[in-house]
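Shipment paperwork, digital attachment
Item: protein structure file
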Amino acid sequence: MFDDSPRAIGERIAARRRARRLTQTALAAAAHVSYATVRSVERGARRLTQTALAAAAHVSYATVRSVERGARRPGDDVLEAIADALGVEAAHLRTGYVGTERRVHRALPALSEVIAGYDLPLGRPTRPPGQLADEIATAVGWRLSAQYGRIATALPGLLADALRYVHTAPGAEHRDAARLLASAARTADAVAYKHGAHDLSARLIELMRWAADWAADPLVQASASYVRAETFFAACAHEAGLVSLERAIEAAPPPTGRTESAVLGALHMRAAVMASRAGSVDAAETHMAYARRLGEQVALEGTYFGTAFGPGSVRVHEVSVAVGLGPGYADRALSAAHAWKPGDDLPAERRSGFYIDLARAQEWAGRPADAFASLKAARAVAPQHTREHPWAREVAGNLRRFHRSDAESLSHFARWVGAV
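Attachment content:
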């Protein structure tokens, strides 16, 4: 049973605060209600209680103290402010929290507005280049850890400044500016794609490809091709997606160094998954073999041009490819996952995806208790990624309909993930 009592929420907040070596006073000072919330109040688009309005400046020490003691249940605005100050999504603090969708959907029109005239110069950025680079790097970290609410709050402004920087950067800085824009566009796309805004996602990917061409960097261009595969997944155009990825593989730089090997290996991993969805067993196995070889060559798991790659990522994709081939390959997926779990060197989103794929294979194999345990593991690692994943929703719905063990906890999970 998931415990969202005020005491349980307070204990989670206190544990996170102590892990970050913050006092209650320091947490209160760092916890601010989001800019978007304050802006919506000023526009008259949203009404807040007196408590929430007071929190718009900061969350008081008394509030933090009473929340940690379990004497007060924090509302969404206060919970989001505390979570942002602790560097986590609010769903890590309150398991039943579903406010990320609100934060994301509030940001989507702003992202669309920012990129509408991406090829038009609209003035100078408000941030200096160094600060812009640092903040985009922070947002990339949020993407890898599936913190979509935080991305949604920050990305409209960051993306606008990245566009202005591209249009105003001196010649010597122009390629770096284009790389930053490509990274910002990819980060914004993660929010749009995961939350079903596929038209906006496609526009952000085109912006990323435009920036990659300006950067004139084959590794950035390869990364853009990797991300472009999302449009083919969304449309279930797997055969065309495989052709696109194989062209990108042919155009990618040779694997002469660790970074080049990792970028090429990531393309092969994605091509293997695309081939599995297309039902091409031979192509899936061929691309997986190349990815495995490049993973051994890279040796160390890491993030290269925004994409995780290494032996652990390859192992995760072994499972994903088997699941993509369908129920007849459930045993292969279970064999690839046997006696192994992804380590903390892998991004949270990728670890969560592994457990969701594993849950699907376990359900197919008639192991409902194991499947539910894997879904709960996915949720613990990256709650928002799990909540937005259609396979997590499908598996939870199937388990609830056909398997009645642990019914109360399973029903709670199914409601949270949107399966009922």
